[in-house]
Automatic annotation (TrEMBL):
Protein name: Prolyl hydroxylase family protein
Names of required cofactors: L-ascorbate
Keyword Transmembrane in annotation: no
GO molecular function: oxidoreductase activity
Highest taxon above the source species: Bacteria
Organism: Streptomyces eurythermus
Segments forming domain Fe2OG dioxygenase: 109-213
Enzyme Commission identifier(s): 1.14.11.-
Enzyme class: oxidoreductase
Coiled coil: none
SMART domains: P4Hc
Record flagged with keyword Hydrolase: no
PROSITE patterns listed in its UniProt record: FE2OG_OXY
Length: 213
């Protein structure tokens, strides 16, 4: 049985300001399921990922990642060590009903796209600068797993009107059950400012990308 609320996703309404996106406040079939996934979010198996070289053409960032699905293939070695609910969640995001729901929501043909999925942790000082995703990333879906989020901790998702983090149209707190769908375009600017040193917890999420081969 799917843990992701497929019907809610397919019936959500896409917004176009500042670019194609939707914030879904209740992404799982029940709040109890969302809470269970939050409580079972493992901190094991993550690797630090950082790019801060000024002489680069891609975005800068610092975060911790645990890859679960790469180029459409589930990493069985990683996934089998997860709790049963998380194994089901991985099965959900590579399923056809989920793909069709995101297609219905976004109007983007995802047939033939390859799924990539990874768990992420933003510790204190982690961030990702304003960017638009690569042209091959057609649609991104971010699921969040934090028990509340104080605005003073920073580290929220910023949907932007430009490459300036201050040019913010919407802020999304990474709270449990909330998810965000982003449709890639040349104006789909978004970023995450550094998590504050006063933040007592890591910012936790699952990122799902549909990538054109």
């Amino acid at each position: 049985m799917s843990l992701v609320d497929i019907e809610t996703i397919s019936r959500a309404e896409l917004e176009q300001d500042p670019f194609g996106h939707v914030v879904i406040p209740r992404s799982f079939v029940t709040d109890a399921v969302a809470e269970k996934l939050r409580g079972e979010f493992s901190d094991d198996g993550f690797e630090e990922s950082e790019r801060t070289d000024l002489n680069r053409s891609d975005k800068q960032y610092r975060m911790f990642n645990r890859s679960l699905v790469t180029a459409g293939a589930v990493d069985e070695d990683q996934v089998r060590t997860l709790p049963a609910n998380w194994q089901q969640l991985v099965a959900d995001v590579v399923s056809r009903p989920y793909r069709e729901a995101l297609s219905a929501l976004t109007g983007v043909d995802l047939e033939g796209c390859l799924v990539e999925a990874r768990m992420t942790r933003y510790a204190r000082g982690c961030w990702i600068e304003p960017h638009t995703d690569r042209p091959d990333k057609a649609v991104t879906h971010l699921f969040y797993f934090n028990d509340g989020w104080d605005p003073q901790w920073s580290g929220d998702l910023r949907l932007l009107r430009s490459a300036d983090m201050a040019d913010c149209a919407k802020r999304v707190a990474p709270t449990t059950g909330t998810s965000v769908v982003l449709v890639r375009s040349d104006r789909s600017w978004h970023g995450v400012p550094p998590v504050a040193d006063t933040c007592p917890v890591d910012r936790r999420a699952l990122l799902v990308h549909f990538v054109r081969p």
